[in-house]
Amino acid sequence: MTRVLVLNGPNLGRLGSREPEIYGYLTLSDVATTLSEDASEGVEVELRQTDDEGEMIRWLHEAADTSSPVVLNPAAFTHYSYGLRDAVAVVVGAGVPVIEIHLSNPHSREEFRHTSVLSGVATGVIAGLGIDSYRLGLVAALRRA
Ligand code: DQA
Question: How many helices (H) and strands (E) does the chain have?
Answer without folding.
Answer: 5, 5
